[in-house]
Write the structure tokens for this entry.
Amino acid sequence: MNGEIETDVVIIGAGPVGLFAVFELGLLDIKAHLIDILPKIGGQCAELYPEKPIYDIPGYPVINGRTLTDQLLKQIEPFGPVFHLEQMAIGVDSLGSDEAPRFRVTTDTGAAYQCASVIIAAGGGSFQPKRPSIPDIRAYEGDGVQYAVRRREDFRDRDVVIAGGGDSALDWAIDLFPIVRSMTLVHRRRGFSATPHSVEKLNALIDEGKIRFELGQVARLSGPAPRLEAVTIQHDEGESTLACDILLPFFGLTMEIGPFGEWGLELHDKQIVVDTEKFETSRKGIFAIGDIGWYPGKLKLILCGFHEAALAAQKIHHYVYPDKRLLFQYTTSSTSLQKKLGVK
Ligand SMILES: Cc1cc2nc3c(=O)[nH]c(=O)nc-3n(C[C@H](O)[C@H](O)[C@H](O)COP(=O)(O)OP(=O)(O)OC[C@H]3O[C@@H](n4cnc5c(N)ncnc54)[C@H](O)[C@@H]3O)c2cc1C
């Protein structure tokens, strides 16, 4: 096994659809491990709109993204899903045949997972930070310019400039200011689009002189790239230059299909083509559900992804238990399903 993890199914993506797939697989005695690039579970619901109300989840007249994620996690608890966060699935090798597929999924951390089926529930693909249009910014990336705080200690005693006015920008300015040499927040407006509590706290720190606020935009970077020494800020009335070791731009995230484009799967634009009977891709044993899948009439809605998960699970049962017949059962009346759910 060479340290590889073995499981029945690897689900790539811990968004709402990947989470619900655990439930549908669990009812059929199929175990799953989930991989996600993000440090938190919940996909778009948790990352992009945790506080926004959703009105079209059956049975919930209104529920926000965070609560939906929490409820899904509660619902799948009986099936003991294993999460591997902060890793990107990058490769898939076929180890079996079309009749008895088997795969090795590898990630950018060097981890490898062996399984009978793979479910790609990767939404719009991977979230990538939006790069501001500052000349030569790429040359500084990874050193003078960083898009996430991976190790807080790397910021100790450094001159740090944060660009942006949303939750990430404010939260990191507030979190890091006690350990940095200087903290400057650059934003093109005096107003911020962050939670009122963070805005209040930030304004207090600016008033106390602990965080410096610059109204404007970062226009230029200087220093021997990738090492950054200063940033030039463009204001309405001119420019100013500030000493800066690390610039953290927080301008939100965009979605990229990422490695799936190289997996030999039939694609439609940036989505993966599936059939509507099993939600299997053009490679037997690899399924695609939720926003990443495409078929005529596909709607990028959470409820559609839930339906797709249920149908994919039926076919996956055949791959995991080729000799077992699958009986269709209702959770309301099947004592065997209720036992699995821990309610009997
Ligand atoms: C602002 C907003 C409002 C919305 N409102 C509604 C609504 O009211 N009703 C509704 O039904 N839908 C709504 N949606 C759409 C809904 O959020 C999506 O349909 C849903 O999130 C899709 O779920 P998913 O699990 O397929 O993918 P996602 O939620 O996108 O999750 C995919 C996960 O896969 C991970 N991933 C991607 N690539 C890899 C990789 N290579 N390796 C590891 N992990 C990977 C990502 O990090 C992500 O966490 C809204 C979307 C937005 C942005």
